[in-house]
Every structure is written in C-alpha cells, then in structure tokens.
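Lesson 9: reading folded outputs for more than one chain in a single document. The general rule is that every protein is listed as its sequence immediately followed by its structure tokens, and records are never interleaved. Here is the first one.
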Amino acid sequence: MSVAVNRACFVALFITACGGILPANAQYFSSSGRGGHDADFFLSKVEESGIKNNLVVSVIRSSNSDVGRKEEYLINCNPYMAQVVDGNDNPKTLDIRSDPSSADQFVWELWYAACKKQYAKISKRSPIQKKLSEIKDVKKFDFDGLAYELKFRKLDYRKALANMVPASFDRLDGKRNNPLLVYCSVDTPTVYWAEFKQLVGVDEGTGFDLNKGLEARLVSLSKEIWEKTCQQEKQPHNVSANQQLPDNTADITGQKPARPAPVTSAEIPALKEVYYHYIITSEMCHLGLFGDMKIQPLKEKLKAVDDMAKKHSISVDEVWADAVKSTEQDTNYQLAQMYKAVPMTTSDRLQFTEGCEQMSRLLEGFIDAHIQKYSGEPNTIKKDF
C-alpha cells in the first residue's frame, strides 16, 4: 500500500472515529395525541450521513402504550429540498416555510430539531407532576376476592412520556403478574395492559375512544388502579437526588421553578463528556485549516457552561482535570497525536477541516443543551445570528 493511501486511510479513520457526538440526555422536540393515544418524541442521536446536507437521526418514541422505542430517519437539511425518510424508506417532502398540518407536525418538528436545533416549535409538553417522584407501592389491593400488590417503577422523564408510570399488578401468592403503564395525564388518563395489549380509557372522553367492547370489570379495575397511582397523597419527605426533575420543566401547577433545580451527581459525568468532546474537536480543528478561528465560538460557549456550573457548586477545574486524564488515554486523542508526527498535505488538512466543521456543529448543539439546563431557560434554542 502506498504512503498516500496509508495517509488517506489514517485521516478517514480519525474523522470516522470522532464524528459521532452523542448528547448525554435525549432532547425533547415533539408531542402527538389523538384518540386516546399520546406520545412524546426525543432526539437521541444525530450523525452525518456522508451525503451533503443529509443527517441520520435516531428518535425515541415514548407513548402511553410503549415506554420507548427507537426509530431512525434520514433527513435532507437543504431548506429548498427538505425531506424526511423513515425506516421503511417512505419519503416525506416538507415546506418548512409554512406551518404544517397536524398529520405532518411530527416530521416538520423533527426536521427543525435535527437541522436547525430548534425544538418543539409547535408542540407543548405536558407539565411534569412532581408528586410522581414520591409515589409509593400499594402493598395490598383486593380484587375479585384475591390480594394483589401494585408496584411502581420510576422513569427518567428526560426521555419518556411525561407523567407515565410503569407498574406491575401482582398477586401476592405469586401466581400472576400483570405489567402496566399508568398514564397520569389530566387530559388523557389511561392504563395499558401489556399482557392483553389493551389501552383502557379512565375518564369519559378517553373511554369513548378506547373502551368499546371491553369488559366492564377491566374498565372498573383500570380506573381504580389509575386512582391509586395518580391520586396518591403527597408524601412529606423530600425528593431524592436522583429523582430531581429537569430544571426547564414546569410543575403540576404549570409554574416554572423560580431557579434551576439542584445539580445531581449525574451532571458531573455529563459535564466531563462536554469537555471530552471539546478536546477531541479542538484536536481535529488544529489538524485542519484555521483551527483557532473555528473553535473560538466553542470556547465562548464553554465559558458560559463553566460559569453556570460554578453557580451549582461544581468544581469545574476538577472535572476538567479528570476529563483531560481520561482523554489522554482515549484512542481518538492518541490518533490525533500520532498524526501530528506525519507530514501533512493540503488534502489532509482539507479533510480535517471538513471533519472540524461537522464536529463543531454537533458540539455546539450539545453545549447549548447544557447551557439551557444550567440556566433554566425555556427548552428552545433560538437562532442568534
């Protein structure tokens, strides 16, 4: 193999290895609701497709009958040829200059989330009910002369349908377990029975849409389960640290918190990940053309992240030192150091410059998400130029 081919392979390897930047948490961008079926959608991964202006996007769909499933889309970000192609190769051409129909709202908001980093341009997510973080198992639940227990599992609402509670309706003799999804929505209260694949409406409106042909005893039991889940009295103890709600989410009254929620232990590795991706992106940009110029906007954003993190009593210097230590052992970083020892051609630098552009765009969105989280700003990134 020639030296030129070796060099080209090495450049391609480094760019490919570094090209995917994953957010620490999924980004909410859309909601849908019709006929008793509700869903929230979250952007979990955005990658370059290798085709100009096209992105490969992973979406988490979380509904009142499914905790979460991943879907992939190919998106053309050219505003004059805007298109979203789903996993079954069904294309949807969009007019992104006009408001969409209700049928097209999801793909329209997906295009803006992936291509413009503008989230939930139309959708309004249901406020998170803080009391659900304190929900207690129901130790004894009598039904049809048998004793049951109602157990609950908490969800991370940063990537799951707001106010949905996974539960299990179990006989105390151990002979039968019934997995459930209890949806504590004020507007669309439902209970999903996984074993029967049946969604049951709890109030008159959702019952009209969903309960035709269902046994009255199943509907009655579902209503009782919903009440014991969603209408528990608020417990006096404080919410545990690992159940703190995102600071940009309204509480059940619809009011925004007066200040950002306390930072949890999960935020430190998230900040460390921001630093890691910045170091790798910086290495990529300095191997290309105009390195300092390209990363200057990232430096300014990182200063804002540092300032906000300090307000939450995070020792940013310690997190940075830890990130540097880990990054120095990382294969991507070591590849960059190795390439610095190889004579650079103009073609090499152009490839690294293109990689720098791609990674910088992804990292900017990643950093913006953290700025929003620390500042408590509304969950929408507005174009500022």
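And here is the second record, again sequence then tokens.
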Amino acid sequence: MAYRTGSPSHELDSPVLTRDLIDTPQRVTVSLHGFDIPGEIIFADLWQPWFGAELPEQVMFRLVLLSLSQRVDRADVTDRSIIVAVPAPELTKRDAERLSQVQREVARLNEIRERYLVSTDTGLRHLSTSLTQKVSEA
C-alpha cells in the first residue's frame, strides 16, 4: 500500500503535521491492489462534529487522528468510511493496580489450564474448559 498527498501538481511524500494545518482536511490518495483511493486525513486536538459529517464528493474515506484522549460518540460519525483514532486514556494508579491484578490472575489461570489440558479425565477437561471461559471473561 502506498499513498501520496496534495493535488497532482503538488504531491508530498506524507501528510503534514503542523500547527497551521490542525483541523484542516489534507487530501491523500492511497494505492491498494492497483487502485487509487482518494481520501483525507485530519490531525486535530479535539473532536469537532463536522469531522463525522458526510464525506465530500470524490473522497472515499476520512482518517481523523486526535492528539488528546477523549470520548467520541459513535452517533457523531455518520459514515462508515470515517475512521477516528484516539489515544488511550492514561490509567489512574488504581486502574493500573487493578489491571496488574487481573493480568496476574489470567497468568495463573493459564498455567493451571495448561496443566489440566493434557488430562483424559472428563472432570479435569471440564475444569480446563471452565478455566478457559474464565480467562476469556477477564
């Protein structure tokens, strides 16, 4: 896959990320399997409702890259060809501790499951299946 930006008379190697182009759609063309797909990329700090609005003519996709973590409601994105990338929120200390605890539990469950996975005992196979379900829920 390759891409180019700008108009045919002024092509760039990549989209430009400068302060004066924040919130400004930049036209790009992505080549995929021999087809050129016109689209646009928007770099922004905060979500604006028009980012999720209908695409202009001859634009097949829009990629919105937000620099600040925030919630974007699915209802604000009206077209399936609009992609929104948001940084993950920073974990609080409590969240990080809880995540670490869950990761330790999952590691223990995986270890136990592996021990019982080779058994031919029906009861132990049931335990292994239950452990697998518990891990997938974590």
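What the second record shows: The first strand starts at residue 2 and ends at 5.
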